[in-house]
Every structure is written in structure tokens, then in C-alpha cells.
Amino acid sequence: MLLKKPIASVILVLAVLIFGGIALERLSIELMPDIDRPTLLVRTNYSGAPASEVEFRITEQLEGMLSGVRGVQEIESLSRQGQSLIFLTFEWGFDMDIAFLNVREKLDQARYLLPNQADRPQLVYSSASDEPITTIALQLANVSNQEFSNRLSLKRWADQVFTRRLEQQEGIAQALLVGEVQPEVQIRFNPRFIDRYGLSLSQIQQAVSDANIFSSTGELRDGWYRYALKIESRIESLDDLRKTPIISLASGRVLLLEELAEVQMAEADPTSFALLDGEEVLNVLVKKEYGSNTVEVFETLQNVLTEIRDQNPDILIEVIQEDASYIENSISNLLQTLLIGGVLAFLVLFLFLDDARSPFTIGISIPVSIFLTFVVMFLFDIQLNIISLSGLTLGIGLLLDNAIVVLENINRYRQKGLGRFEAAREGTKEISLAVTASTFTTISVFLPLIFLGGFEGAFFRDLAATLSFSLIASLLVALFILPVFVAQISKNSKSKGVLSTVSEGLDKVVMAYERNLGRVIQKPLPIIVFALILLAGAGFAFMTTEKAVLPPDEPAKVDYLVSMPGNTALRSAKQASTDITKILRERTDQSNILSLGGYTDNTNLKSITNEGLNRFTISIPVSGFEEAEDVDRIMNGIAQTYTNWTFQKMEDDAVGAVGIGRDAPVQFSVVGTDREFSVRVAEAFNEFLNRNYRETQLDLKYPQRIQAYQLQFKTQELLSYELTEAEVIRYLESLTRGSFVTDWNRQDEQISIRLIGERETNLDPREITLDVRDKIIPLTAVAEIARIDEAEQIERIRQSPILTYNSDLTFMDWWWDGGELQELVNRFMQQSGHEIQIRGSALQVINLLKELGWLLMISVLLIYLILAIQYENLKYPFIIILAIPFAWIGSVFALYIGGISLNALSFMGILILTGIAVNDSILKVDFMRRYFDETGNLDEAIKQAGINRFRPVVMTSMTTILALIPMLVPFGDGYVLRQSLAVALMGGMVTSTFLTLYLIPLVFKWTNGGDSK
Question: What is the mean pLDDT of the chain?
Fold first, then answer.
């Protein structure tokens, strides 16, 4: 019906292009799909407690309660000085809102089990939105950024103006300050002077607290009226605090606080720092709202920053790191490859088609299919990311396949003498089953993703959806739109000139192929031997090709985590960061080197385990692998100088984004409550490996140790001196960080008030004296003091205390010798009776590859079942799917030769290839089957299939291969990700085309030899 009414088809095409363009403008843009690792963090602060105490009093108690939460797959924990971190990993696909509520309920029940001094457990749900999308540095212009007063004014402006302006913008969820100065009011007293008046620290604390009362005590009633009663005696200024009365003397004079102590505003002990090129800055980490478009949010942010700069010329505002440009460039480059690939595939049509108008009738299928896919993506809320867009780019050649096959069949009927409309009708009708089968076999390889959970399903769902939508769209275009255009536009006459010459040349190629095919069928041994050699070589290439989660992208920056000895103060870490930055700037000429230290972001699961007062990260901008290698060499040299520091190179964030951790490839964990004994077990196990396997080095995962003083009070001595434990603890606090008194609410700022005693240069508890009760009492007289050494961080997995060692075994060591190593571990456990667990990223990657391998097998089975149902035959589907293993051979060889790892993206290229490889095979087998059934002449069926199907088979393969060529070009951001997909797919297309042209007819001959007439 549509054949004689082309105007309807034209209107339909225009509607698709218009709505597709609108949908493209509104699609959300991200680099990777949103993959929220189903993980919750329970963070509990227990100030001052050593790691062993935190583990015993906090971590063990909470783990016991949380282990019963529904959906929890694994519990891991870290206990460190003053803090407990418990990570709850849930099953993929579990409703995390329900999980959050269940865990919150358990934490409320467990609160009574925790010490009174411990804070309430904090529950953190981290997602991709918690990663900062932009880092901004703030500095004051033309003044010193080191002075306390300047830093305080900058912090107040940032806190009260800057961050609030940012958080008011659409799409921005939070703006965190890093390296801000924290003011506090310090009451500095002399213990001897206080003791002269017979006062105690608790009396001074109580007097200051009473002076800062703000409370509501009820209401007063007066007949028909009632009045709220509010008591307020708040401190309004430092002078008010200085005039605070402490005690009334015998003479009747009131003793004021300023007579006993010096009151001043000062800087509290910092918890974080930020340095840019060694200079102190105030950093702002900007986070976006969940589901917001990173590129759009950054554009909004830039506009706001421009306004703020104009309004505050005395403040320097610099964006030093941001993700939007990389995302935008990667997507833009991929869109360019999509366009160039489409043009190249379109040009192939001119070489193969006789009629100059025919390529335009086929070419319409590319934009219509792609724009229709954009509409579906918008309706189903699928992001435009590098994975979903790769699905479209990979499908460019496939979008032409159905159209090419339909056009070829229509032309065949026209050559038989049928009119334009009859040829379009009969040609489309005859080939519709074959193209429908090939399309749905391609789509079927993605069906298992619906049933697979975990990383594979979450990561590749967008790619599967976009490619499937585009293929269905291309099938609809080929069966309903293309015949209309062919009937209306194509001419009966052949083209002259260049196209005619090319066509004649192709006819000669077809005849040469026909002769070669005849020789292969007569003497099949050489090609069979060649195929077997390819198969064996591919097996070797598969085993030796590097395996990874994602290919390493060209680095834009190099990040290092530097850990200093456990007792190192933050100020020392800050000085070390300054020194390292100076060395890097002298040797690399790099600028914008950013250092962040201390506790920077307590809501980000990726960074929280790397934070600490003795740690800092240093980020060096680079352009390319060469500069990154130079930075690595310099950092290795620095690491050799500071041997008691740990330098750890941080991997690309994309790895963490796909759900695989940053652990060493192979780790060994010794299970046991006595970790000192576990050290000896690990040493014995290391010797066992050296004897029975090879020289293997084991290094502690958390080697840092801290020194601590352990005090045990002498009860009788305290009584004899008329002292209490609380009084001694308060005195000791005042000598260190200061004893907290109260919070002073100054306008909208909350400032701590602390009581601080005279500090000595070397603060050794064994040399401290207590100036109380008109006596000078050595601390050693009322307490036994011992110096202890313990681990800075203590690890537990599945509620078992463990000691983890990183080995020097690589991924390939585990790939080849994993079974042997597992057997050696079992032997050691049997002989020693101690449990050793094997962990590491190598195990995670292999499990991922196994899951993807099962996905391939299930896809092949689905293809076979679909073909068997369509043909109602088991023999022909078997012949068709023989194309699949030989397609895999080409992929593996291409990866091996190109030096590209077998990773999640290249594996997805192989998975797509599994569906594509059978398409050409279906065309040839379907033709041979129908011709053989009609005539009974097997040799003629093979010959005619070669003549009639050579052109569409080669055309579909070449359009797919040429469409992928732009993805190989190493330009722009994200090209490494594109290459992995394209190389795997292109290599397989070459070998699968070869198989379709020669081996498939040969196998068809063998399997039907007994049925020929």
C-alpha cells in the first residue's frame, strides 16, 4: 500500500528526524553509565581511642548487629585511631532505599552497646553523584594567604556567601570546603596561678558554660494571657567572655576570667589542608545532584563563577580540576566518529551499486535509525554516555546491512524483467524472513543481560539497549520505507562512467571468487588446515593477551597517595607535601599541582579509606603517557629517599566506577585474632611459597604503626592526693588539644571554647606534673605509664579479624598458576592449621571474564534456538553458527597484534560480533537451502549462492568495517575506550567474512551431500 503513496513515507521520515533531533538535545550526558555500587558505610567516631580499642568496643559490636540485615552480601571493616568504618556490600539490584532503612533501624538498636564517649554511628550511602565534578581554589588577592586573620575572613566568605550561591544553582547538591581554617576561642591558663586561688579546672569550665546559657524554661500565665519565658545570658563578644565572673573572694571582690587566663581567638588544630603549587589555598569540592547532567551543571557553575568574580575582584577563583570537559570531548569525539563512519559506509555503496541513486535510498536508513533510537533513549531515560554511544557507532555498518540485502534482492527481481513496484514487493517479501532472522539473532546476544545482575548487566545495559533499538529501527526502515524509495527513485538504466567501471570490476571479482570456491570444494584440505592453524594460534593469543577491567586511558593527571608514619601530625604532612611539590615543579615544569591532606570528604567511599592526618594525595597534571612516566620516575626517586613513607599510585577513577576495587592483583589474608601471631604465620607461608612455587614477596597491606601511651591509674594514690580520674583527664586534655568547654554561637557561626594550659616543647606523659591542691604531683605518682606500639589500621572481613599481605604476583601469574596457588594454600592450611584467604583484583577480573564467557555461551545457544525455530531444522542453524568461533579468532588475533587487553569493552565488541557474524552466514545458507529445495541440484545451489550473495556479503562486511575505522584513530579524549571496541569487532568481521565465503559452502556441501539428486 505504501509503495504507491510515497508522501506518507516522506512525512514519517521527516517526523523521525525532527523528534530525534529534539530528543538528542535533551539527553543527559555522562562519561559512564550510572553504576551505583550497592554499598553502605557505617562511620563511628570514638575520639582518642586506639585502633584495637575501636575494634573491640565499636566494630565488633556493630558487625554482630548488622550481619542480620537482609540483602547484605559481605561485611568489611577498618578500625583506626578514633574511627570505625564498616562497609556493607549488598546484592546487585537490591533496593538501596530499603537497605538504608533496615541498617538505620539496626544502628538505633545497637546504640546502647557502644561506649558513652562514642558518637552516634553515621550512615553514608555513596553513589556516583558523591564524586566531585569540579575542584575550585580560592585565594585572597594582593595579601598573604598564610595569616590567620586573612584565612579566617576567606573561610567566612566562602562559607556564608560562595558555597551558598553555588548550592542555590540547579543541579549542584553540595559544595565542601577543604583546608579551611577553624577558629576557636582559647582560654590559656597557668596551672600554678589557678591553684593559688584554690580553683580547679572544672570550676572554670562550669563558670564559662553558665555564662553561655540559652534555654527555654516554659511559660508564665497571667489570667487570660500566657507568656513564653526565655533565659538568655549568652556571650556576645570576647570582652564578655573576659569579664566572666569566676569566684567571689573573701574580700568581696569578684575574680574575673581575664585575671586568670589569656582569652584570644586562634586557629584550632586543622583537620585538612589544600595546597596549589605549594601555596595554601581554600579548596571547594562541588558535587552534583543525582541524575543531573554533568556538562550542564558545569556550564551553570561557570556562569555563576563569572558573576562572583565580577562582584568580588579581591578574591581569586580558579577552577583547577573538572570532569565536564573530558566528558564533553569524549562524547563529541564519539559523535564525530559516528558521522565519519556513516559517511565512509555510505561511500562503499557507490562502489558496489550500479545505480547512482540507489546509495541515497539506502543511506536514508542511517539517520532515520539513529534519530529514532534517540527518541527511544529519551523515552526510556537512557543517558548519552560513551557506552550507549559506542553501541550506536558500532551499529553504523549494521544499520546498512538490512537495507543492502533488501535492495540487492529487489535489483535481482528487476533484472528478471519485473517492474519497479512488483520487484520491490516480491524482493522484499522473499528476503524478509532472512533479514528478520539476522536482526533478531544479533539482538538476542543481549537478552542474557536482562537476567544477569552485577557489573555486567549494569554496565552494558545502555549499549545493549541502544544497539537493539537501532537495529529494530533499521529493520523497519529496510522492510517498509526502503522499498518505497527504491520504487520511486531508482532508474532502469545503469550508470555510466566510474560507477560502471567499478561495477564491471566487481563482476570480475565475483567470477574469480566463483572459480576459487570451486577449487576449495574440490580440494578442501588446504583451507581446513589453514583454519585449524588459525584456531590454534587464536588459543595461544587468548591465553597470552593481557586481561583487564578497562583499558588504560591516556592520563590527564597522575595521583599519588603518600602515607607518613602513623604518629605524624597534619602540619608535618603539609610540609612534606610542600617539599614534594617543589621537587616536582623543578624537574617537570608542571603547574597546578594540587595536594589535599587530612580528612577532606567524609561522604565519599572512594576517598574515606585513604584519609588521615598523616596522609595526603598529590595530583600532577600531565598530557599523555610520556609525561606520566616522567612523573612516576621522579616519585619513585622521592620514595627511595623517604623509605619510611609509603607512596601509592592511585589508579584511574573509572576502575572504581565499574565496581572493581584497587587492590593488588593477588593478596593473601591470614585469619586470626592474635595479629602478632598472624605475622609469624604469614612469614611461614611466605617461606612455604618460596620453597614450593617461586620467590614471592609479601608486603603488609597496612604497614603503618603508631606509638601510643597507655595510662593505668593507681586508685589508692589518687585517693591519697584527693584527686579523681576525671580531674586528671581534664588536666591532661588541657595540656594537649585543650579541654572543650562550650560552643559560642557568634551570629551564624559556631565557635568552640577550649581551656588550654601551658604547652611544653616535648610533651612526654612521664615528665608531666599536676599543679593541684597546692602541690606539684608527678603524673607517674598516680598512674602507670607504658609506651605501646600497634597497627594504625586494623582490618576485618566477614566478621573475622585478618592480616592482609599484598604479593608481587601479577594478573598473568594468577591466570596461569591460579589453580596451583590455590592448591598450595590448601596444603599449607592442612599442615599448619591456620586459615589463609586469597583475595585481590585478579580474582575479581577473572570472575568478570567468566561471567562474560557464560554470557557468550548463552548468546550462542539463543542464536541457535532462534534459527532452529525459524527454519524448523537443526542442521542449517548448526551450519550458520559455525561462523561464530571463526569470528572470535579474528577478534583475539586483532587484540593480540594491536597490544590491546581483553577487557570489558573489547569483550563487548566480541559479544556484538557474535550476533553480527551469523548475518552473512544466514544470507548464504538461506539462499542455498531454498535453491537446493527447489531444484535438488546441490552444486548449482552453491554456485548460485556465490554469485548472488557475494556482493551483499562483502558489502555488509565492508560497511561495518569502514564505519569502525574512525574509532581506531587515536585522537581526542576517550579514544582508548573506542579502540578496544572497534579492534575486537573489526578483526572478527574479517575472519567471519572469509568463513562465510568459503567454509560455509563447504560445510553445506558435506552435510547435504547424501540428499542431492
Answer: 80
SS3 label, residue 43: strand
Q: What is the DSSP letter of 384?
A: B
Q: Quick: pLDDT tens for 640-687.
A: 888 888 888 887 544 444 333 456 788 999 998 888 898 899 999 999
Chain-centre distance of CA 107, in angstroms? 28
Structure letter (DSSP) for residue 478: I
Q: Please compute the mean of the pLDDT values over residues 154-180 and round it to a whole number.
A: 88
- Count of other CB atoms within 10 angstroms of residue 236: 11
* Residues sharing a CB contact under 8 Å with residue 623, sequence separation 6 or more, in sequence order: 556
The span from the CA of 56 to the CA of 63, in Å, is 11
Q: Taking the alpha carbons of 491, 492, 497, 500 in that order, is the dihedral positive or negative? A: positive
The residues pairing with 174 across neighbouring beta strands, listed in sequence order, are 287
C-alpha grid cell for residue 346? 555510505
| Integer-rounded Cα radius of gyration of the chain | 37
What is 913-973 written as a DSSP string?
Answer: HHHHHHHHHHHHHHHHHHHHHHH--HHHHHHHHHHHHHHHHHHHHHHHHHHHHHHHS--ST
Going by C-alpha positions, the residue among 552, 547, 553 that lies closest to residue 852 is: 547
CB-based burial of residue 702 (10 Å sphere; 0-12 exposed, 13-18 middle, 19+ buried)?
buried
Number of neighbours of residue 119 by Cβ within 10 angstroms: 14
Count Cβ atoms below 10 Å from residue 480 Cβ, excluding itself.
Answer: 13
Tally the C-alpha atoms within 13 A of residue 69's C-alpha that lie toward its C-beta.
32
Kindly list the distances between the CA atom of residue 661 and the CA atoms of 144, 650, 658, in Å, as whole numbers in the listed order: 42, 11, 9
Query: Do the Cβ atoms of 290 and 618 come closer than 8 Å?
Result: no
> 599 phi and psi, to 5 degrees?
-100, 105
Asked if 801 and 635 touch (Cβ cutoff 8 Å), the reply is: no
Distance of alpha carbon 976 from its chain centroid, rounded? 16
922 and 437 Cβ atoms separated by less than 8 Å: yes
Tell me if 581 sits within 8 A of 275, measured CB to CB.
yes
How far is Cα 22 from Cα 895, in angstroms, rounded to an integer? 38
Burial class (CB in 10 A: 0-12, 13-18, 19+), 585: middle
- In angstroms, the CA 929 to CA 938 distance is 9
In a 3-state reduction of DSSP, which class is residue 558?
Answer: strand
Q: How far is CA 190 from CA 75, 755, 767, 768, 930, in A?
A: 49, 11, 17, 14, 105
Enter the C-alpha cell of residue 655: 576502575
Tell me the residue ranges of DSSP E strands in 675-792: 698-700, 705-713, 739-746, 749-756, 769-772, 775-778, 783-791
Which residues sit opposite 561 in a β-bridge? 617, 648
C-alpha distances out from residue 232 to 211, 216, 226, 742, 745, Å: 9, 9, 19, 15, 12
How far, in Å, CA of 396 to CA of 378, rounded? 20
Cell of 12: 514519517
Return the pLDDT at 307: 92
DSSP 629: H
Separation CA 562–CA 336 (nearest Å):
40
d(CA 559, CA 594): 9
Q: Please give the biggest Cα pair distance in the chain.
A: 133
Sequence-ordered list of residues with C-beta below 8 angstroms from that of 222, at least 6 positions apart, any chain = none
3-class SS shares of the chain: helix, strand, coil, % to 5: 55, 20, 25
Q: Identify the H or E element spanning 621.
A: strand 612-621
The span from the CA of 235 to the CA of 216, in Å, is: 17
Report the length, in residues, of the chain: 1013
Q: What is the pLDDT of residues 272-308, one digit of tens each?
A: 888 888 888 888 989 887 767 788 888 899 999 999 9
CB 182 within 8 A of CB 271: yes
pLDDT of residue 352: 67
Q: Is residue 185 a contact partner of residue 752, using CB atoms and an 8 Å limit?
A: yes
